[in-house]
TrEMBL record:
Species this protein is from: Halomicrobium zhouii
Positions of the ABC transporter domain: 24-288
MF annotations from Gene Ontology: ATP binding; ATP hydrolysis activity
Family: Belongs to the ABC transporter superfamily.
InterPro entries assigned to the protein according to its UniProt record, in alphabetical order: AAA+_ATPase (IPR003593), ABC_transp_ATP-bind (IPR050319), ABC_transporter-like_ATP-bd (IPR003439), ABC_transporter-like_CS (IPR017871), Oligopep_ABC_C (IPR013563), P-loop_NTPase (IPR027417)
Top-level lineage group: Archaea
UniProt name for this protein: Peptide/nickel transport system ATP-binding protein
Residue stretches of biased makeup (Acidic residues): 1-13
BP terms from Gene Ontology: peptide transport; transmembrane transport
Region described as Disordered: 1-23
Matching SUPFAM superfamilies: P-loop containing nucleoside triphosphate hydrolases
The entry's keywords: ATP-binding, Nucleotide-binding, Transport
Length: 384
């Protein structure tokens, strides 16, 4: 990081104050969507519980990778975490400041909403949609500087743009600055969106499937670039990935955590080796089982095996099961699982929302659930 860029970071941290508070805290966050239209909304209490009571903290220079099947609420949770989606319940706090309180009651806020917006950025899956096709890279990158770095004159702005293009390995920077998005490859476009996010000197970046659209051969390169720059800029990341192998790579290199989501909740969280090698939640085992193996012998064995689920189908998010939402699919479910919703408990090496993590729980004395029909080869929607 250049001295200028480093100084900016320090200034923002000082402005934000509150050293004793976590950088980001999600407290019992819920995002429930009303479904139906018109009068139906009032007559029906059906709602999609996209996120349903999530607690999560993010420290400075931290990484959490959210993993789970399609529709489990990863994007909704990620957007809530960076202030792009207003929760219908609970709170999201940036350095102790409730984000939505700062928006609704600016006078009482310790940190302005505008400052919070700057501090939280997003990189989308599809960089082509995120970049204005009719503007050159130079103009695209000048926008955030004009908005948030008003002290910079045209010359300094140009130098800053070149410097950030170099950070994201786009050299010669002058050449790339003159291009339009259609003159860039997919990987180059994603580098521009990363550079643009970093220009805001953010504390947190939400990277929503930011590498999924890239060629497999470019994914590791992009992950490495993001992780190198994470060290340079001390940025925290919430990554969203449907791919457990990528999640492991990201979390392991950065010393971060993997959070496994299922139907609106985090069901297991911990270090990458712990979550993947010694999971305590039966759903994490399912994800691990469904991740394709590079080892042909393991792959052949998997084909012969039955998936470790009792049912293949994911329940309707408008009508989630009682108790533990995973219990109808869980091979270890007992009656206690249908009656009560587990919290995250300290498990062997992770935190897991499963009664089996507790030595003294009525789970152990309750009846096993009868086997459900429908076991077979599951299409679980994770992995490539
Ligand atoms: N604006 C909305 N209105 C109603 N339902 C929504 C809305 N946005 C998301 N949902 C629903 O909320 C649930 C969670 O969606 P979300 O996009 O967060 O999941 P996801 O895990 O990111 O999925 P994917 O991996 O497919 O992107 C899904 O059932 C989805 O259909």
């Amino acid at each position: 990081m250049s001295t200028d860029d480093a100084t900016d970071g320090e200034q923002h941290d000082e402005e934000a104050g509150r050293a004793d508070e976590p950088l980001l805290a999600l407290e019992d966050v819920e995002v429930h969507y009303d479904t139906g239209t018109g009068i139906e909304r009032y007559l029906s209490d059906k709602r999609v519980k996209a996120v349903d009571g999530v607690n999560l903290e993010l420290e400075e220079n931290d990484i959490v990778v959210l993993v789970g099947e399609s529709g489990c609420g990863k994007t909704t949770l990620g957007k809530s975490a960076v202030g792009l989606e207003r929760p219908t319940g609970g709170a999201v706090k940036y350095r102790g400041q409730d984000i939505w309180e700062a928006k609704d009651h600016p006078r009482g806020a310790d940190i302005e909403f505008r400052e919070i917006r700057r501090a939280m950025q997003i990189i989308h899956q599809d960089p082509a949609n995120a970049l204005n096709a009719s503007r050159r890279v130079r103009a695209i990158l000048a926008d955030p500087l004009k908005k948030y770095r008003t002290e910079l004159g045209p010359q300094e702005r140009e130098e800053t743009i070149y410097r950030y293009l170099e950070y994201v390995d786009m050299t010669p920077a002058e050449d790339y600055a003159d291009r339009y998005p259609h003159q860039l490859s997919g990987g180059e476009k994603q580098r521009i969106t990363l550079g643009r996010a970093l220009l805001m000197n953010p504390d947190v970046i939400l990277a929503d499937e930011a590498i999924s659209a890239l060629d497999v051969s470019l994914r590791v390169e992009m992950m490495d670039l993001i992780l190198d720059l994470q060290e340079t800029f001390d940025t925290s990341y919430v990554f969203i990935s449907h791919d457990l192998a990528n999640a492991r790579y990201l979390a392991k290199r950065a010393g971060g955590r993997i959070a496994i989501m299922y139907l609106g909740n985090i069901v297991e969280i911990g270090g990458p080796d712990e979550v993947i090698q010694n999971p305590s939640h039966p759903y994490t085992e399912v994800l691990r089982w469904s991740t394709p193996s590079m080892d042909p012998d393991v792959a052949m064995e998997r084909i012969k095996e039955k998936p470790p689920v009792r049912r293949i189908d994911v329940p309707d998010p408008q009508d989630p099961p009682s108790g533990c939402a995973f219990h109808p699919r869980c091979t270890k479910a007992r009656e206690a699982c249908a009656a009560e919703d587990p919290e995250l408990y300290d498990a062997e090496e992770t935190e897991a929302a499963c009664f089996r993590a507790l030595d003294n729980h009525e789970y152990w004395s309750s009846q096993e659930l009868e086997d459900a029909e429908g076991s077979g080869t599951a299409e679980l929607g994770v992995g490539d």
